[in-house]
Amino acid sequence: MSALDSFKEKIDGRSAVIGVLGMGYVGIPLAISMANAGFRVIGFDINKPHIEGLNNNKSSIKHIPDSDIKMMKSAGFYATDDFSKTAECEVLIICVPTPLDKTREPDLSFVTATMDMISPYLRRGQLLSLESTTWPGTTTQILLPYVERAALTVGEDFYLIYSPEREDPANADFSTRTIPKVVGGYTEACLEAGTVLYESFIDTIVPVSSTEASEMVKLLENIYRSVNIGLVNEMKVVADAMGLDIFEIIDAAKTKPFGFTAFYPGPGIGGHCIPIDPFYLTWKAREFGVHTRFIELAGEINAAMPQYVVDKTVRALNQAGKSLKGANVLALGIAYKRDVDDMRESPSAVVMELLQEWGANVAYSDSNVPVFPKMRKHQFDLSSVDLNPENIAGYDAVILLTDHTDFDYEMIRENAAILIDTRGKFRDDTSVVRA
Q: What sign does the CA torsion over 371, 357, 376, 335 have?
């Protein structure tokens, strides 16, 4: 039996052990899906409290219930920081962060640190999949040398693939199983092995010609969103200057049954993908002498939106005879999107920082984020405040930044002295400031 046939047999028979490296917003849903499909999964992470929580059936992510972790445990799952256990796995899937550094260049330190930890334990018969977003060429230029130094032959006794994550936290319409999975292999045998793996727990597989093509797919998906959000954010500024309601305009435009997809403005862009992924491509494109002006312009527009929100707040306070300096300002919703607890690259944190720089006293309310988390860029020693009429009335200005469904919007409207709306929730109220 060939090495590839043996690998397929282990996947088909569910005897393969799966190692997920990085148990966060991508790794946990992936592990749950594989456990549901009958695989034994080992979760690897360097965060000891996080590991202890998982091993005690505790989910660290709001939209993933503890019962899902308990289900994994009953299927043989456990979490560990002992990376020598990767030798027990037939499949290793890397789901670690790939942020930008201070100069907005790709930071692959989490990927390389992971490879440093697992490289002594790489062995024949394994498949290594990278799911972290990165620039085209990362799999072959960064991961492949580790495998070759282990005296393994990719495509013969070891399989190397890139398959971009497509998680959308708290999306009730799509799950890990139902979102089509793009897979690119270093060789045809790698692609075949990767396809066999992912089709065992995902409904639709989309094979592409190479790992580079698969890496570029992920960037295109998120650059498409970044550019269109940048466009509609700019349109919001123009419409506001003209006294027009951008949300009315979008709702009318989306009645066209072809040629238009609705995107909505906000206080900026957040999450790990859209604010970061475009710059992976702009950085890599420079190597080929290409200047990605369109992508960079969209990034500039989106990055300017928090300042736009603060400027609107300054004007609103000024019209009420108040200054932003010394004003008490409440940020409503600080997670990057509705009904999640994910703070990665949240524009709300930027707005809060700018307000503080102007001398405002900043507070926030978000039941999804009870305590402001430790972040690489932003630090606030704050906890979420309760929303009630007395509290709302005590602030000079209230800014709706993330439109969570658990907010009592009518109570907020009735009691806020000045209400700034960045999400179009109060579009029919002319007393509310649109930002």
A: positive
